[in-house]
Amino acid sequence: MSTSLWRICGGWSPIVRSLRMLSDGASNGLVKRELLNDSSIVHLILNSPKKRNALSLAMIQALHKELKEAESLEKARVVILSAEGPAFSSGHDLKELRSSEGLEKHKTMFESCNAMLAQIQNMSLPVIAEVNGIAAAAGCQLVATCDIVIAGKSSKFSTPGAKVGLFCSTPGIALARAVPRKVALDMLMTADYISAEQAMQAGLISRLVDDDKVHEETMKVAQKVASMSRTVISLGKNFFYTQVQLPVTDAYRMGGRVMVDNLRLADAQEGIDAFIGKRAPNWTHTNKKVH
């Protein structure tokens, strides 16, 4: 992870401490897991519909655990993140943010959430959000953090914290990196929802489809990603998030080195040979070098 990303998520010490806290969590049914497409697609489902899939501390811990386990699966190539019920996620559980819960609980909540979101961007597997319904506050932050977002036409997105006296400062971090500043500030300061169409125009989501086609479209995208070399996709994802933090000149300099290193991979040479030979590649999905 780049230094700037560590700073975004609260610095080194809180992240390390939060990852330890997260590792103690259990799923407890809050996140369900399905293995699809010969186990190459790991489908994680937020499973607290009665609470509109609020990102409680328990939910954050469960999601961290499942993401960590997904990355450890040898056949895994991509993660889909969806939700049960009419809401993708309503954000943090406000009951856990009352003063009666105490300052330490509040610190743990936000440090743990920041660490889990950093985990999504820094894990080797791409994460695709499959969104139906609302995504609000930290739920919108979760959407903005995922690598690819497929959303239904009736989906809505908001950062409404100011309405209840708690400005969406951390959701605004991911939001500001996904949409233009004027759109982000409008959402943060008015607490208004934006439609799926507006979110598409602003760049918050990748693809917009009819509500009943969201899972089908998500699977199509996931299958395409899963057909690539896990090693190459991991390398590309890591470099992408590193280079967007750099000045253009530095990004190109680093990019050139990454391209050369990529060419050393057995999977790169296999892909080139397969293309020239007009056949399907036989990926190793490893870091094996040919030179």
Output the keywords.
single chain; 291 residues; alpha/beta; 2-enoyl-CoA Hydratase, Chain A, domain 1; Lyase 2-enoyl-coa Hydratase, Chain  A, domain 2; 2 domains; 6-stranded mixed beta sheet; 4-stranded mixed beta sheet; 12 helices; disordered N terminus
Please explain how this structure is put together:
It is a single chain. The protein has 291 residues and is of the alpha/beta class. It has 2 domains: 3-226, 2-enoyl-CoA Hydratase, Chain A, domain 1 (Alpha-Beta Complex); 230-276, Lyase 2-enoyl-coa Hydratase, Chain  A, domain 2 (Orthogonal Bundle), CATH 1.10.12. It is 49% helix and 14% strand. The strands form 2 sheets. A 6-stranded mixed β-sheet has the order 1-2-3-5-7-10, sandwiched between helices. Helix 2 crosses helix 4 (103-122), helix 3 runs parallel beside helix 4 (103-122) and helix 5 (138-145) packs parallel to helix 6 (169-176).
In N-to-C order, the SSE pattern is HHEEHEEHEEHEEHHEHEHHHH
> Which fold name is given in CATH as the topology of the largest domain?
2-enoyl-CoA Hydratase, Chain A, domain 1
Spans of at least 5 consecutive residues with low confidence: 1-25
User: How would you sum up the global shape?
Assistant: globular
CATH architecture of the largest domain: Alpha-Beta Complex
Strand order, sheet with most strands: 1-2-3-5-7-10
Averaging pLDDT over every residue, what do you get? Answer: 92
The percent of residues in helical segments reads 40-55%
CATH superfamily of the largest domain: 2-enoyl-CoA Hydratase, Chain A, domain 1
